[in-house]
Amino acid sequence: MKIITLNTHSLVEKNYEEKLQQFVRGVLAEMPDVIALQEVNQTIAAPLADEALLTGYVPAQTAVPVRADNHVANAARLLRDAGVPCSWTYLPIKVGYGKYDEGLAMLVLNREISHVESFLISRADDYANWKTRKVLGMQVEGLTDWFYTVHMGWWEDEQEPFLAQWKVLNAFVTTKPRHAPVWLLGDFNSPAEVRGEGYDKIAATGWYDTFRYAQEHDSGLTVPGVIDGWRGKMADTAAEGMRIDLIWCSLPEKIAVSRVVFNGENHPVVSDHFGVMIETLPHGNEPSKQPESPWGDFDSDMEDDE
Questions:
Q1: Predicted pLDDT at 37
Q2: Residue 87: half-sphere exposure toward Cβ, Cα within 13 Å
Q3: Are 110 and 85 in contact (CB under 8 A)?
Q4: Which residue has the higher pLDDT, 294 or 198?
Q5: Alpha helices per DSSP H over the chain
Q6: What domains are defined for the chain?
Q7: Residues 62-81: pLDDT tens digits?
Q8: Is the pLDDT confidence value at 41 over 50?
């Protein structure tokens, strides 16, 4: 199975139409099974999507309609035009940049989405508040796995701290059956390079970073410098590049490779984030090396208090 996660930046990007085409060409080259997307937007004032654009759409719990310039809807349209059937879902969460419905989305190639769910992880539940955070999850026809696309807040945020959001997210998804993998995919806004914060907290609560469990992986860096949301935060770390776009699994699944994509080497850059793609090994194939510890020497009894 191949899985991709990407914070898209969507219509905010310069030369958006070209980047949309480049994204779809990259997807067609890789043919992932599941794609998790964050910062997926549409213009609030755009016309409503027509029936043809909604082909394959599985609604999430939202009263906000899909509009004609919706990023994931048009990516799905281009994939269908290329002969690849796909199923997709979209959850608008908040107003972005004063003019967009911004949210989360998931795409499935050559299969159908069988179930969709969403839930609030932030204290704020206000569509006009840019700090509102929700999670979008799905199951895919023929699989027992659950896949969730995630866009977290920051560790030190006074109103919406990462740790409070993580507690809600972790409590919800750990109610799923333990025998089936649960995948958390997305922008965690917590650099893997920084000790004692969000990355270490996730690892200490039993989640497996697929990057560290992969037989082969590259640097994993998905943000090459300071971007929106990070200006003034951890300037040295951000300037050197960060690994904040991650794929976590509830079980120690066997991972063949973890690779950064849409980074200018593996497909053109289409966002202010690079994407991550993993490929799992079939069950029964033993990895050639022992996985690294997800949290190194970090104390797994990290305090839960905020």
A1: 98
A2: 17
A3: yes
A4: 198
A5: 16-30, 71-81, 162-173, 198-204, 210-213, 235-240
A6: 2-280 (3.60.10.10)
A7: 889 999 999 999 999 999 99
A8: yes
Categorize the per-residue pLDDT at 236 as very low, low, confident or very high, splitting at 50, 70 and 90. Answer: low
pLDDT in tens, 284-296: 544 444 444 443 4
Tokens of 9: 């930046």
62 and 91 Cβ atoms separated by less than 8 Å: yes
For residue 195, what are its two tokens? 């000790």
| Inter-residue contact 101 to 81 (CB < 8 Å) | no
3-state secondary structure 190-251: CCCCCCCCHHHHHHHCCCEEHHHHEEEECCCCCECCCCCCCCCCCHHHHHHCECCEEEEECC
Angle at 121 between CA 230 and CA 254, to 5 degrees: 80
**What pLDDT score was predicted for residue 298?**
37
Count of positions (residues) in the chain: 306
Apex 134 CA angle, 130 and 135, nearest 5: 140
